[in-house]
Design a protein that fits this description.
Layout lengths: L2 H8 L4 H12 L4 H7 L1 H4 L4 H30 L5 H9 L3 H8 L9 H7 L3 H9 L5 H4 L11 H17 L2 H14 L1 E6 L17 E5 L5 H12 L3 E6 L2 H12 L7 H48 L9 E5 L6 E6 L5 E7 L8 H14 L4 E5 L4 H9 L8 E5 L4 H5 L2 H6 L5 H14 L1 H5 L18 H19 L1 E2 L5 H4 L6 H15 L16 H7 L3 E2 L17 H10 L4 H4 L3 H4 L14 H12 L29 E10 L2 E5 L6 E4 L20 E10 L4 E5 L3
Parallel strand pairs: 4-7, 7-8, 9-10, 13-15
Antiparallel strand pairs: 1-2, 1-3, 4-5, 5-6, 11-12, 11-14, 12-13, 14-15
Amino acid sequence: MTNIDYIKKHVATAAINIQNTVQLLQEDCTIPFISRYRKDKTGNLDEVFIEQIAKFQKEYEVIVKRKEAILKSIQEQNALSPDLEKKIQQSFDLQELEDFYLPFKKKKKTKADTARENGLEPLAKIIMAQNNDDVDFISTKYLNENIINEDAALQGARDIIAEWINENIYVRKQLRRLYERKATITTKVVKTKKDDEAAQKFSQYFDWSEPLTKAPSHRLLAMLRAENEGFIKFKVEVDIDEAYDIIDALVLKSQNKTTSHVQLAIEDSYKRLLNPAISNEALQEAKAKADANSIQVFANNLGQLLLAPPLGEKRILAIDPGFRSGCKIVCLDEKGDLLYNETIYPHAPQKEEAMAMKKIRSMVNSYKIDAISIGNGTASRETEFFIKKIAFDKPVQVFIVSEAGASVYSASKIARDEFPNYDVTVRGSVSIGRRLSDPLAELVKIDPKAIGVGQYQHDVDQNKLKEELDNTVIRCVNSVGININTASKHLLSYVSGIGEKLAENIVQYRSENGPFQDRKQLKKVPRLGEKAYQQGVAFIRISNAKNPLDNSAVHPEAYGIVEKMAKDLKLTVNDLIANKEKTALIQPENYITPEIGLLGLKDIIKELEKPGLDPRKSAKVFEFDPNVKTIKDVKKGMVLPGIVNNITNFGCFVDIGVKESGLVHISQLKAGFVSDVNEVVKLHQHVQVKVTEVDEDRKRIQLTMVI
C-alpha cells in the first residue's frame, strides 16, 4: 500500500489532490500557504483537510518505520518465515503489527519461560494438540529436580499454553471487538477518601457504571482525574462468560481428557494476561478519543477567542480592577504603546472615589482616550459602575474584557522584555487594554492553555494539545494577515514560513532600518531566503506602500497577472483596486497560467474588490444587568444579558456579571435536539438567559436560553 492509498482511506478527496498536497508538504510549503495559494493543485482543500493529509502521511511513515524495525528484530532471531513476513508487509495497522511481534518481543521472564527451561514445552504441545491422550500419565515423563510431581508438570505446561493463547492474533482481535462493543466502565469510591472535601466534586463517580462507548469525553476525563487523585478505583470489563466463549471457539478442538487442562489455561490466560492488556488497550483508546474530543473543543474555543472582534487603533485607558490594592490604570496610544500608568483607590477600604474620578477624567482628556477597557476579575462590576458615574467631556465607550491568562503574560519573559522597567501589575493592565484593540496580537503572547477556554486541558495528551493549539493560532494569524510594521515578534513568529528566529530578525531589521516600504524589502532580512519569502510574504501587510497590492492578500507571484488585468481594462492597478464595477468585468479564464489556475484567479479578483479586508467584525459594547453584582442578587426566574465565556461538549458557560459563570446545559440551548454546542453559540456571543437554579453554597448557577 502506498502512502497515497493509505491517506485516501482516511481523507475523502481524489488521489491526485492528496498526491499534490503531499508533494507540496514535502517541498516545505506551509499549510496556510498551500490552502490559500495552491488551490488549483489541491482541488480547493481547506486547512483542515490539508492538516489531515499531513497527519496521515506522518502516521504512514511511522507504520513503515515500525514494520522495518519488527522485521529486522524477528530476522535477527532467525524466526522470520515467508508467511509471517508477508503478513507483516501487508499490514498497515499498528496494533496488528504489535500482535504479530508479540511472541518475539523481549520481555521480562515469564512463567512460560520458566516452564520451557524446565523442559515442559513438549508436554504443552501434546496437551494443545487435544488428542485423546492420558496426559496425567504422560506428565510423569517430564519430572526432574525442578518439577517434582505431575501437578507441577501439568501447571508448567498450562503456563506455556496460556502464553500461546495470549499471543494468538485471532483471539486478541476477537476480544478487542468484544471490548469495543460491550466494555463497561465501573467506578467505586476509595472508602478512606469518601469524606474528603476535594473528593466531593467527583461524588457522581463514587458508585458509577456505564458502557465505555457511551461515556462522553468530559465524563471519562473526570473519572480518570478522580482516579489519578486517589478518590476512586475503576475497571474496564466485559462479561467473562462471553469472553471465555470467544476463546473456547478459537482454541478448543474437541472434548476429551486434555480439555480440562486447556480450559484451565484459557481461564488463566484471560485473567492474568489478556484481560489486563486488552482492557487497558480499550481504556487507552477511549482516552485517546476523549483527548481528541477535548482538544478539538479547546481549539475551537481558542480560534473563536483569537478572532474576537478588535476595537482597532484607538487610544485606550485600561483598568485592572481591585479593592484593597486599588485599580491599576494604564493609558495606551493607537499602537498599544504605554503612555502613562497610575493606581487609584475608588473602592473600600480607602473609598477615594472623588479623587479617583478626577484622575480618570484628567487622563481621558490628557491622553485623548477613545475607550475604556476593564478586566473582568475581582471588583470588575464595581469598577464598571464607578466609571459610568463619571461625566466625560466626550463619549467614551466602556468594555469589559476577559482577564484570562493576563497574570501569566505579566510574569512572563515576553512581558519583561517589553516592559523591563514596570512591575507585573502594570504589564497586566497593558495586556487588558491591548486585548480590546487587537485580541489576536495580544493573546498570541500567552500559552494557549493559560487562556482557560477548554475542558480538562491539563488531563489530555499535552503534545497533541500543543500541536493542535499551535495549528489553531497559525490558522488564525494567517487568515487575518498582519501589519509587518507594528507586529510584535511573537505575532510574526506565527506567520507562514517565518518562525521564531526570522521573526526576531525582522524586528531587528525594522528597528535598524525603519518601517518596511514594500514586500520586496523582506528579502533583505538576514537569513530570510527565497522559500521563507514565498511562504510568508502574502500574509504580511504594508499600509501606505508604493504598490497597493502590498497591503492585500494577493501574492507577489500574481502581481504581473493583476497588472495585465488592469492594463486590459485600460486602468492602473490603483484604479482597479476596490472598483467593483471594473473587477466584475474581469474574465478569469483569460489569465490562467501554469502556476495559477481558475480557483486562484477567482481569489485574486475577490481580494481586489476588498483588499486587506479584516475577516473579524468590530467590537461591540455590552452591558450587564446593573442590579446584579453578586450571586446573592441572582434569583430563579430572572432573565439576564450575558456573554458566552466557555464552550464544552455538554453546554456553555455564560458570564452574567457575577464572579461565578452560569451553565447552560446543551439541552437548554434551544428548543429541540442539539448535537453540537457550536451550532448554537460562539465564544463571546452576547446572549439572553433565564436563571433556572441558584446554589449559593456550591456557587453554582443553572441557566437556560429557552425563554
